């Protein structure tokens, strides 16, 4: 059978790079596209170290429509997995227009170019943030959606835009994947998350406490209605998440329509659970201080994973200990990021 070709936008980023590896290992032809705003071309060499092959790469911005047209003119692309975008919640509140331009205008460019090229299969990176503060957990895909910051709004708008695209043309196949909290790194220690500046997210922050670059973890509140009072989230290993994309793209290539799917483990862990799992992984006691709640945070967020299991036949494999071990392995091997 002829290999299917998948264009991965944001292909050198954290989730994108792991997905390129998973796609290549599953027998797909991969074209990575990225403007390298939040990633480094060295990632492509790392992918080669793991898979034996460097994916074809375009250093292109999704805001550059002509650049996108060139990619589609030069290649036959069967489907697109669209990761490219900005993702910092706090920053999106400070510079909303930049977020709307990059995450919405850039995406609309991509969808237009896809339409013109006759490529109508897309897997989109959405987020559990579209559920806002859910009335209950676990969260099912048909729960009401709302957003509390521009970043979340860009995810929800993209979902709506792609639903409208499908309404206008039933030849489209659209997978809206709502990720919970991706953490961890590739087993090889070659790929992982490299936050810009001081991390906002829990595990990258703990990793820097563990390697001595930061003094202690600031735990944002212990007065939530959760077993130990700290916030509970559904952490998912980035390799599991990448594998979820393989199942999703396979499904999308075989079916038309729009599907919204949670990608999580279905299990919730508190901030202190994660800290303790990381202590086991790195073999050290990690200092922390309890501080006031962080604005905009919710108490609990974890996925109902039945739809992913039934529709895609996918479920997460790795547990929290392995996620922390792999994060620590990557941190030790790349103390200054990927260069
Ligand atoms: P990342 O920043 O590591 O990867 C995104 C990549 O997109 C980067 O390499 C960046 O250089 C590139 N990019 C940004 N703007 C671009 C543009 N205009 N043109 C071309 N490339 C551009 O982030 P990630 O964690 O891998 O996230 C990937 C996607 O998943 C994002 O859309 C993000 O919003 C979404 N998501 C992430 C999380 C998370 O916690 N990591 C959770 C839910 C959803
Ligand atoms: N936390 C701390 N200290 C820190 C960082 C985080 O106590 O230094 C706590 C938070 O209060 C929260 C939990 O750890 O209870 C997880 O926080 P993260 O910042 O790691 O993740 P969030 O759940 O807040 O947000 C993430 C992504 C968003 C995405 C959202 C839903 O960053 O982009 O999941 O998918 F929208």
Could you walk me through the main structural features you see in this protein, from its secondary elements to its overall organization?
There is one protein chain. By secondary structure, the protein is an alpha/beta fold. It has a domain at 5-184 and 235-264 and 304-316: Rossmann fold (3-Layer(aba) Sandwich), CATH 3.40.50.720. It has 11 helices and 14 strands. The chain has helices spanning 14-25, 42-51, 65-74, 89-94, 96-117, 150-168, 202-210, 238-254, 271-282, 306-312, 320-333, and strands spanning 5-9, 29-34, 56-59, 79-82, 121-127, 173-179, 181-183, 217-220, 232-233, 235-237, 257-263, 269-270, 288-291, 300-301. Strands 3-2-1-4-5-6-11 form a 7-stranded parallel beta sheet, with helices on both faces. β2, α2 and β3 form a beta-alpha-beta unit. The chain is globular and about 55 Å long. The two termini are 37 Å apart. The model has no long low-confidence stretch (mean pLDDT 97). Nicotinamide-adenine-dinucleotide binds at residues 10, 12-16, 34-39, 61-63, 83-87, 102, 106, 125, 127, 179, 181-182. Uridine-5'-diphosphate-4-deoxy-4-fluoro-alpha-D-galactose is lined by residues 87, 89, 127-129, 179-181, 200-202, 205, 217-220, 231, 233, 271, 294, 297.
The CATH superfamily label of one domain reads NAD(P)-binding Rossmann-like Domain
The CATH topology of one domain, please?
Rossmann fold
CATH class of one domain: Alpha Beta
Strand order of the largest sheet: 3-2-1-4-5-6-11
Radius of gyration from CA coordinates: 19 Å
User: What value does the average pLDDT take?
Assistant: 97
Give the structural class: alpha/beta
The beta-strand count equals 14
The CATH level-2 architecture of one domain is identified as 3-Layer(aba) Sandwich
Shape: globular
